[in-house]
Amino acid sequence: MPARETLLRCPVCASSAAPESSEFECSCGELYDVEHAFGPLDRALFDSRPRSLRAPGDSGVWRYRELVDPDLDPAAVVSLCEGNTPLYDAPDLARFAGLAAVGIKHEGLNPTGSFKDRGMTAAVSRARAAGARHAICASTGNTAASMAAFAARAGMAATVVVPDGAVAWGKLSQALAYGAHVLMVRGDFDAAMGLVREEARAGRVALLNSANPFRVEGQKTIVLEVLQQLAWDAPDWIVFPAGNLGNCAAFGKALREALALGLIERVPRLAAVQAAGAAPFATAYDNGFERYEPVVADTLATAIRIGAPVSYARGVRSLKETRGVALAVTDDEILAAKVAVDRAGLGAEPASCAALAGARRLVRDGRMAPTERVVCVLTGNLLKDPDTTRAFHEGRLAGHPAPPERIRTIDADQRALRMALEGV
Q1: Phi, psi angle pair for 373, to nearest 5°
Q2: Fewest CB within 10 angstroms: 121, 129, 161, 216, which?
Q3: Angle, CA of 88, 145 and 197, to the nearest 5°
């Protein structure tokens, strides 16, 4: 058997809980990890699996089921054929960042348009197997959209709790379309998170935020898929946006397990990139993780507008284990990277583009060599936040100059069209 047992384990005091538990926090205050007892696994197992035309056989998460949740009954899996996202070569973006080459892992091409689908298939599947009937999450948008879709697929009720006026409607409209009930809180994401965690502790609903350790198990497959796409030859760096730090926790865990199982021979460095207006993790990194102070988040990158990340301690562990770094980039840097990503034909929401902005900053600061092998993770689709894209190109973003005019109205005659074409 590839695994003998799955349980929840506290990384601090080593106490454990059953995987069916609705409480994801140990009595010592630390979030639980999912712990698997792995048997022999090798690259050939994953490389040999053909893709099916039906879910979950076509899932880029459940392809790695022995590493995600080997004890789960396959009949309980709730899948939308998530994962299997491309790893693009992007010479234009490499030049933008000052690198010889860069790989772009585009998680915005998941079913609901963000990386959240990978964690959600694992967490919703576990919740359904445990008999949960009602799912809940706090969200800045992407988690809400993903949870609503997977809950609908599972036949569960769904409630999303979001900060009033701080969620892009491209995301919120998805949650509504999938049938979720939407509660707008007069407060920020961190206030919403506190409410849903307390409700989940009472056992009335299944919490689907990244405090749920099975979310982390699904999100590990972003890194596993990158490694497989690179023929298990690990890059030097994996750079990604950082908000609630679920991906930071997941990526570190994926690399720790892949190294222990012999799937890779060396561990890439992780670079967690925050927006300057929402950078408690980067600030803590700068002081050697001696002090951690939550902030009131303020950035146009709504997906990472989080001032008190739930997975802070797990994120610290991931950076320490990978000789990783955390840094903050400004909204101007994020927008410049977004223009580059969009013009390369890839497209992403603003928060995603923090990854490329972070790589560029690391090169400029001399902390990343131009010749190193780098993978940047784009976490959300361009259409997640169309309002920001439109406002930018129309010159309506305060403090951000408009790019050259590209939206014009012309008369319906051939001469007007030809005149317009002369300026293209």
Answers
A1: -85, 120
A2: 129
A3: 115
Q: Enter the tokens of residue 371.
A: 């010749």
- Continuous segment of H or E residues that includes residue 275: strand 269-275
CA-wise closest residue to 379 among 335, 347, 348, 356: 348
- CA 293 to mean position of chain CA atoms: 23
* pLDDT of the residue at 133: 94
> What's the pLDDT score for residue 79?
96
- What pLDDT score was predicted for residue 140? 83
Determine whether 199 is exposed, middle or buried from the number of CB atoms within 10 Å of its CB (0-12, 13-18, 19+).
Answer: middle
**Residue 175 identity:** A
- The values of phi and psi at residue 238, to 5°, are -125, 120
Q: Which helix (H) or strand (E) holds 270?
A: strand 269-275
Look up residue 101 and give its two tokens: 């080459």
Q: What is the pLDDT of residue 2?
A: 42
Distance (Å, whole) CA 377 – CA 296: 25
What is the C-alpha separation between 66 and 1, in angstroms, rounded?
9
Cβ-Cβ contacts under 8 Å for 304 (sequence gap 6 or more) = 140, 241, 242, 243, 274, 275, 278, 351, 354
Q: Under CATH, which number does the domain 87-113+214-393 receive?
A: 3.40.50.1100
Q: What is the pLDDT of residue 167?
A: 79
How many C-alpha atoms does 115 have within 13 Å on its Cβ side? 34
pLDDT for 3 equals 41
Q: What is the pLDDT of residue 420?
A: 87
CA–CA gap between residue 390 and residue 404 (Å, rounded): 13
Angle at 18 between CA 316 and CA 255, to 5 degrees: 35
Q: Give which of 334, 61, 99, 368 is closest to 223, Cα–Cα.
A: 61
Low-confidence ranges of the chain (pLDDT < 70): 1-4, 53, 402-406, 423
- Phi/psi-derived region of residue 98, left when phi > 0, alpha when psi is between -120 and 50, beta in every other case: left
CA distance 245 to 306: 10
Q: What are phi and psi of 241, to 5 degrees?
A: -70, 150
